[in-house]
Design a protein that fits this description.
Two copies of one chain form a homodimer. Chain A has 310 residues and is of the alpha/beta class. The first copy, chain A, has nine helices and twelve strands. At the A-B interface, helix 7 of A face helix 7 of B.
Chain lengths: 310, 310
C-alpha cells in the first residue's frame, strides 16, 4: 500500500510518497511566514498531485502542528499558527481533489507512530516520545495505542505539563510548562533574564541551543547553569510522563538532540534516581528517524489506528 | 449483590458490608502505628467475619494506600507503609479464610469509582479525582475506565507529578511533586522554611491546613502567602491532569476540602485561565461521599472493572 504523507510544520511542509517502511520520494516546501492553511494547501496539493500522478496512492496521512481531533478529522486548535485551520474540511479537500481518504493526526503523534513502526520504538507498546525543538512535543502510547481521551487531547501535550508552577507563561495559556521553561522559543527569554547573562560568553552570540551547549562546553559559567536548568526541566517532564502514563521507554527526538551525548545520560540517571517505578527502570533512547518519523507514521495511521470516518 | 469492602489507610481501616449504593454496616479499626500488613490483616479478618456472618457477601473489595497491580491482585509498592505488603497474597487469604474472591485496588482509584457510582461524578466518563489530605491522590478515568497502563501505574499518581522542578524532594523519590509542595505532611516543612514564618501568627500554632486557613482569614500575611502558594500548586497539578488525561470534570475530596468555599472557585478560575481546552471548560466539583467513596467503589470494582483472575 502506498500512502501520500504530509508533515506540515510552522515554516515548511514535507510531502512524500511512502510504501511500507520506505519513503519513495519526497518534496519539501518552504512556507515563509504563511499565515493561512487554505493558501498553504494549494502548494501542498501541487506537490501531492505530482507524487500521486507518478505512482497512485491509496490515502493521504496528514500531520499537523497543533491539536487535532483525529476521529472527526478536524483541527481543534492551532496555538497561533494557521488560525483558519479549524474551519477547514481537510477530508473533503482530499476527496474532491484526489478522490482519496485522508487521515489527520498531530505531527508529534505521527512521529511516535513512525518510531514505533520503523525506528527507535519498534516492538514497544508503552512509550512516550519527547521532541525537543522550537517547542516540546510529548506523546504517549499505552498498550500499543495512542492515548487520546474524550477530546483527543490526552497524551499529546507532554511539553505543556507545568513543571514550574511559579514560572513563565506559556503560549498555550498555562504557567511554567516544560516548553516555556526550556525550548527553542523560550530559551532566549530564559537566558536574557538569567543573572549574569550580560557578561557571559552567550551574550555575544545568537541564543540557541547549539550556541548554549558550545559556550557551556567552553566553560562559560552562566551557560553551564542554563544547561543544568534545561536538563532539570526535561528531567521533571520525563518524571511527569512516567508517573502519568507508565511507559517502559522514553524516546527523544528534535533538533536539540544533536547533543544526545549529554542529554540522554542525564535523563537516564535522573529517571533512575527520581521516577517511582517499582517494576524496574524506564529506558531512555534517541529517536532514529529524524524528520522521516512523521512521514513513516502515516502508514500505521492507516493500517492500525482509528476506523475511518467518511 | 452484597460486597465486603475494606478501606485500609495508614492509621485506620474501615470494613463495611455494601449493597448497591448503600453501606449496610461498617466498623472502623484504629491501627496505631501498625507497621505490618500481616498483623493488620488479623484485625481486618475478625471484622469481616462478623459482617459476613450476619449477611453473606459475594466478594471482598480491598482498597490499599499504595501502588497496586490490580490485574494480578498484588501490592506493588507501599511508599513506607506496610512494607511486607508486596509479599502477601491477599486473594489467597480471602479464598482460604472466607471462600470469597477478592479484588484489590488503590484506595484513591476506589474513591473515584465510588464517586462515579454514587457521588459527584455520576454519569461522567472522563474524570480526574484529586484527594487533598495528608498526601495528594490524583486518579484518572478515561472513557468510563480507570487508566491503568503497563504496570497499573498510569493515571494514579496525580499527586506525584512534579510542579516545581527545583522544589522539595518527595517521599516517592521525585522532586517538587504537588504532594511535597502542598499536602498535609509537607505543609509544616514548607511553612517553617517560609520567609517571616517565625514572626507569623502561624508560628504559635500546630501547623495544619485548618490553622493555616484560619490565620490567613484572620489577616496574617505569611499565612496568606502560603495559602496562595498551595492554591497555585494545586492549580498547576489540575492543569497537568487536564493536559495529560483530557477530562471534562475534576472532583476534589480529602480533609483539606473543608475549605472548598475558597479552593474550588480558585481552581475553576485557574483552569478557565490556564488550561488549553479548545472544546470548552473543564468543570470543578467537590466530592460528595467523603470516606464512604472507597467503600462504595467496591461495588463497581466487582461489577464493571477488570475480569477476575483466580
Amino acid at each position: 500500500m502506498k500512502i501520500l504523507a504530509v508533515d506540515l510544520g510552522g515554516t515548511h511542509a514535507t510531502c512524500a510518497l511512502v510504501e511500507g517502511r520506505r519513503i519513495l520520494v519526497r518534496q519539501t516546501l518552504a512556507l515563509p511566514g504563511s499565515p493561512s492553511l487554505a493558501a498553504t494547501l494549494e502548494a501542498i496539493a501541487s506537490s501531492l498531485e505530482e507524487l500521486h500522478a507518478g505512482s497512485p496512492a491509496q490515502g493521504i496521512g496528514f500531520g499537523f502542528c497543533g491539536l487535532v481531533d483525529s476521529r472527526r478529522t478536524r483541527i481543534a486548535s492551532t496555538n497561533g499558527k494557521y488560525t483558519d485551520a479549524v474551519d477547514l474540511d481537510l477530508a473533503g479537500w482530499a476527496r474532491e481533489r484526489f478522490g482519496l481518504p485522508l487521515r489527520l493526526e498531530n505531527d508529534a503523534r505521527l512521529a511516535l507512530l513512525g518510531e514505533c513502526f520503523a525506528g527507535a520504538a519498534q516492538g514497544e507498546t508503552d512509550v512516550v516520545m519527547f521532541t525537543l525543538g522550537t517547542g516540546i512535543g510529548g506523546v504517549a502510547m499505552i498498550g500499543g495505542r495512542l492515548l487520546r481521551g474524550k477530546h483527543d487531547q490526552a497524551g499529546v501535550l507532554g511539553g505543556h505539563i507545568p513543571v514550574n508552577f511559579a514560572g513563565r507563561r506559556c503560549t498555550c495559556g498555562a504557567v511554567g510548562c516544560a516548553e516555556s521553561e526550556a525550548s527553542g522559543w523560550s530559551l532566549p527569554l530564559v537566558t536574557r533574564a538569567w543573572p549574569g547573562f550580560a557578561s557571559s560568553a552567550l551574550a555575544a552570540r545568537n541564543i540557541d541551543f547549539q550556541n548554549l551547549f558550545a559556550c557551556a562546553t567552553a566553560g562559560d559559567a552562566v551557560s553551564r547553569e542554563i544547561v543544568d536548568h534545561c536538563l532539570r526541566v526535561w528531567g521533571a517532564a520525563a518524571v511527569a510522563a512516567v508517573h502519568s502514563f507508565d511507559p517502559e521507554l522514553l524516546v527523544y527526538g528534535g533538533g536539540v538532540m544533536q547533543r544526545a551525548d549529554l542529554i540522554l545520560p542525564f535523563l537516564q540517571d535522573y529517571l533512575n534516581a527520581h521516577a517511582w517505578t517499582p517494576w524496574g527502570k524506564v529506558r531512555v533512547r534517541a529517536a532514529q528517524l529524524g524528520n522521516d518519523a512523521a512521514l513513516l507514521g502515516a502508514v500505521p495511521l492507516f493500517d492500525q489506528e482509528l476506523p475511518l470516518v467518511r
